[in-house]
Write a structure and sequence with these properties.
The chain has one helix at 153-156; strands spanning 10-12, 25-27, 31-34, 51-56, 72-78, 90-91, 103-104, 117-128, 131-135, 144-150. The chain is mainly beta. It has a domain at 25-80 and 116-152: Elongation Factor Tu (Ef-tu), domain 3. The strands form three sheets. Strands 3-4-9-8-5-10 form a six-stranded antiparallel beta barrel. Strands 1-2 form a two-stranded antiparallel sheet. A hairpin with a 2-residue loop joins strand 8 (117-128) and strand 9. It is globular and about 45 Å long.
Length: 168
């Protein structure tokens, strides 16, 4: 497979004109994804069944123990190719393109955000060593992974389920 990207810190200064002090946050990726996608991804992981891999750094491999018991995991990622670009605070969400209807960035799933953090729900196909094979690719090749959390239906699905409002 592809050569591992150099380990790097993901850092962002949370600048503010408000009176609230917001400290700088420094994160270290736990690994990266291999997807083969250099540009253009599906809008959501659940929109496709394409396969990819998460490669966790070797020294964190023990942290994967028990993950094989889950069908789905959340990948928390850093959109490193949009980082540094100013995010418009109003955007037209993908489902409403062509309507001109604008929403605040926090009411969208756009990767262009004040902090370009991604959240993908993917299906676990297998775990071997420090690699997680998954279905539901919506990330570019070598996207840094900040964390992995198991999907727990009784905790992650609101009580109203499908009846929950989407806002659009």
């Amino acid at each position: 497979m592809a050569e591992a990207p150099a380990r790097r810190r993901v850092s962002t200064a949370l600048n503010s004109t408000s009176s609230i002090d917001r400290p700088e946050v420094t994160l270290r990726p736990i690994g990266y994804v291999l997807t083969g996608l250099e540009r253009g991804t599906p809008a959501q992981a659940t929109d496709n069944v394409s396969e990819g891999e998460v490669v966790v750094h070797a020294e964190l491999g023990e942290g994967l123990k028990g993950l094989e018991g889950f069908d789905y995991v959340w990948l928390i990622t850093w959109f490193d190719r949009v980082a540094g670009e100013p995010a418009p605070l109003e955007q037209v969400p993908r489902p409403l393109r062509g309507t001109g209807r604008r929403f605040g960035v926090f009411a969208t799933r756009s990767p262009a955000r004040p902090n370009p953090v991604g959240l993908s729900l993917v299906r676990v196909l297998g775990i071997e060593g420090t690699r997680i094979r998954f279905a539901g690719v919506d990330l570019l090749d070598r996207t840094p992974v900040l964390d992995i959390k198991p999907f727990v239906p009784q905790d992650d699905i609101p009580a109203q389920g499908a009846a929950a409002r989407s806002g659009f």
